[in-house]
Amino acid sequence: MNRRTLLHRLLALGTLPLAAACTRASTPPTPSGTATVASLGLAPQFWRDKVSPAAFKVLFEHATEPSGSSPLDHEKRSGTFVCAACYSPLFLSAQKFDSGTGWPSFTHAIAGKTATQSDFRMLLPRTEYHCARCGGHQGHVFDDGPQPLGTRWCNNGLALGFVAQNDALPALRG
User: Fold this and answer.
1) Is the pTM of this model over 0.85?
2) Beta strands 152-155 and 96-97: pairing type?
3) Ordered DSSP codes for the chain
4) Cβ(133)–Cβ(92) under 8 Å?
5) Contact at 8 Å (CB) between 87 and 171?
6) Per-residue model confidence as pLDDT tens digits over 125-153
7) Which residues are catalytic?
8) Which partner from 22, 80, 88, 107 sits 20 to 30 angstroms from 131, CA to CA?
């Protein structure tokens, strides 16, 4: 390990107490209707050949797609947004709104279909949410959404599929 790598790692370790203190002070409560992250007990590799490589990176390696790249951000039809891996229904079109961020955004998830955990990847804590069924990473919950709930569930479009109201929901995978 070179000196620069060692210094970066030591610096990162020094931020852990700060991150823990920030979590206690400012992590928003778990949104209602959610649980802690759980899954079917399947390893992420199970899903590798069931989704595109880009979706796999978002769902199981916590990548983020570029803002404005998802056609689902502009989806206006009535229907259901489902997990791209296991097809579990996560959001109804009535819950979607245009947040102006470039990612599909929702006021809330379908009760019991998502699971949350704290995320420190940006140093300050955020509430990350996953599909409660397969554990696939969907996005983050922010407190700048429309009233009356005030939450914005910012989702990666690659982590979602869309089923129009008149179409049949696909069978769950896994």
Assistant:
1) no
2) unpaired
3) --HHHHHHHHHHHHTHHHHHHHHHHHPPPPPTT-EE----S--GGGGTTTS-HHHHHHHHH---PPTT--GGGG--SSEEEEETTT--EEEEGGGEE--SSSS-EES-PPTTSEEEEEE-TTSS-EEEEEETTT--EEEEEES-S-TTT--EEEE-GGGEEEEETTSPPPPPP-
4) no
5) yes
6) 778 899 999 999 999 999 999 999 999 99
7) 154
8) 22
CA 50, 52, 54, 56: dihedral to nearest 10 degrees? 0
The answer to whether the beta carbons of residues 85 and 134 sit under 8 Å apart is yes
Spatial neighbors of 126 by CB under 8 A, at least 6 apart, are: 118, 119, 120, 140, 141, 142
| Burial of 46: CB neighbours in 10 Å, binned 0-12, 13-18, 19+ | middle
Distances from the Cα of 115 to the Cα of 6, 97, 121, 136, 164, angstroms: 35, 21, 18, 10, 24
